[in-house]
Specification:
With 380 residues, the chain is mainly β. 0% of the residues lie in helices and 47% in strands. A hairpin with a 4-residue loop joins strand 16 and strand 17.
Length: 380
C-alpha cells in the first residue's frame, strides 16, 4: 500500500486491529543506541512479532533496547499478553500454532496446535481463555490458559474467514468478525458455543467494545460504515457513515468517543470521531496520507494514527484536531505504555520500532528489530 501504512488483508499481509503478516527467516536483533530515558517509570517490556524471521523481539522500555530474539513458529501474525502480564501468546499463521512466552524469562514454551492460518487472538479479561481465529477453516479455537491446551474448535462458518476478535469486559462474550460472510459471530465463553451470526456491512475489518461493555463497533471496510451492535440483544443498529474504507477503530478510555480510521485513496485519508451516546459521526479529521492503525493514550487526551508519508499523526481528542505529524519510517502498528508516556510504532520495511515521547510528540531513536516487525503488545 502507498505511504507505508498497513491495511487488513486476508492474505495475511497486514491486518487491522491485532496484527498480521507473513514471511520467514531467523536471527538476533542488534541492541538499539542508548536512548533518552524520560519515557515513564513502567517496568514493562514491549513484545514485537517479526513475521520475516519467525521471532519475537522483546524491548526493554526503560532503556529502549532490543533484547535477545525469541524463536516462535512460522509467520507470527498476532500477539497478546495476559492481564497479569506473565505470558505473551503469539499466533503463528504459517504453522497453525500459538506459542506461549514466559515474560519473566523471555523463553518460548511448547507450541499449542490450533486451526489453519491463525490470524488473530484475544484473551478474556479474567485471564482464563484465549480465543484464536483459524481463518482458513472457519473456526475459532479456545485455549485453556491454565494448562495451555486447546479446546474443541468452534465453527463460525466454513467459508467465513474469521479474523479479529473482541471480548466483553465481563469476559462473557467473544465477538468474531467474519470477513467473507459480512457478519459478526458472538461466542458464549461459558459454553464455548457460537450464537447466531449478526449481519454487518461489507468486509468487516476491525472490532472494538466500549469500556462499559454495552456496545460493539465494527468497521466495514467495503461499505464505508461502522456498525454498532447492542450487546444485550446482539442486534445490529443503523450503520454510521465514516468515509470510504475504514480499517481500524479505537475508543477513548472514558467510552465517549470512537475513532474510525478511513484509509481513503491516493494519500487522502481521514479519521472520523463517533459520538458513542448518539451513534452519530462527527466531522472527519483530515490526515496527511492514508489513515490506518490507531491507538489512544490511557488518559484519553491523544489518539495516534499511522498515516502515509512515513508519519504518525497525533490527534487532540478534546478538539478533534490533528497536530503536526511525527516522522516515522513506514509505520505499521502502535502500542502505548500503561503510563501513556511513550508510544511504540512498528515499521515493517525498515525493520525498526520507533518510540514516540507523548509529552512532546517527539520520535526517539529507532530500535532495530528483525525483518518485518508488525504486531506489538506491551506486558506490564
Amino acid at each position: 500500500m502507498a505511504g507505508g501504512c498497513s491495511v487488513i488483508s486476508k492474505l495475511g499481509v497486514a491486518v487491522a486491529g491485532t496484527g498480521l503478516v507473513i514471511f520467514a527467516a531467523s536471527g538476533t536483533a542488534a541492541a538499539a543506541p542508548a536512548a533518552h530515558t524520560s519515557h515513564g517509570t513502567d517496568p514493562v517490556t514491549a513484545y514485537v512479532a517479526n513475521v520475516g524471521s519467525d521471532t519475537v523481539t522483546p524491548i526493554d522500555t526503560a532503556t529502549n533496547t532490543a533484547l535477545a530474539q525469541i524463536t516462535v513458529g512460522n509467520g507470527p501474525t498476532a500477539i497478546a499478553v495476559t492481564p497479569n502480564g506473565k505470558t505473551a501468546y503469539v499466533a503463528n499463521s504459517g504453522s497453525a500454532s500459538v506459542t506461549p512466552i514466559d515474560t519473566a524469562t523471555n523463553t518460548a514454551g511448547t507450541a499449542i496446535p490450533v486451526g489453519e492460518n491463525p490470524q488473530a487472538l484475544a484473551i478474556t479479561p479474567n485471564g482464563k481463555t484465549a480465543y484464536v481465529s483459524d481463518s482458513d477453516v472457519g473456526t475459532v479455537t479456545p485455549i485453556n490458559l491454565a494448562t495451555n491446551t486447546p479446546l474443541a474448535p468452534i465453527s463460525v462458518g466454513a467459508a467465513s474467514f474469521p479474523a479479529y476478535i473482541a471480548i466483553t469486559p465481563n469476559s462473557k462474550t467473544a465477538y468474531v468478525i467474519n470477513e467473507d460472510a459480512d457478519t459478526v459471530t458472538p461466542i458464549d465463553t461459558a459454553t464455548n458455543t457460537a450464537l447466531a451470526p449478526i449481519p454487518v456491512g461489507s468486509t468487516p475489518a476491525a472490532i472494538v467494545i466500549t469500556p462499559n461493555g454495552k456496545t460493539v463497533y465494527v468497521a466495514n471496510s467495503g461499505s464505508g460504515t461502522v456498525t454498532p451492535i447492542n450487546v444485550a440483544t446482539n442486534i445490529a443498529l443503523a450503520p454510521i457513515a465514516v468515509g470510504s474504507s475504514p480499517y481500524y477503530l479505537a475508543i477513548t478510555p472514558n467510552g465517549k468517543t470512537a475513532y474510525a480510521s478511513d484509509y481513503g485513496s491516493e494519500g487522502s485519508g481521514s479519521v472520523t470521531p463517533i459520538n458513542v451516546a448518539t451513534n452519530t459521526a462527527l466531522s472527519p479529521i483530515a490526515v496527511a496520507g492514508n489513515a490506518a492503525a490507531i491507538a489512544i493514550t490511557p488518559n484519553g487526551k491523544t489518539a495516534y494514527v499511522c498515516t502515509g508519508l512515513d508519519a504518525v499523526t497525533p490527534i487532540r481528542t478534546a478538539t478533534n484536531t490533528a497536530l503536526s505529524p511525527v516522522a516515522v519510517g513506514g509505520p505499521s502498528q502502535i502500542a502505548i505504555m500503561p503510563s501513556g508516556a511513550t508510544a511504540y510504532v512498528t515499521s515493517d520495511l525498515p525493520g525498526t520500532v520507533t518510540p514516540i515521547e507523548t509529552a512532546t510528540n517527539t520520535a526517539l531513536p529507532a530500535i532495530s528489530a528483525q525483518p518485518n516487525p508488525y504486531a506489538i503488545a506491551i506486558a506490564p
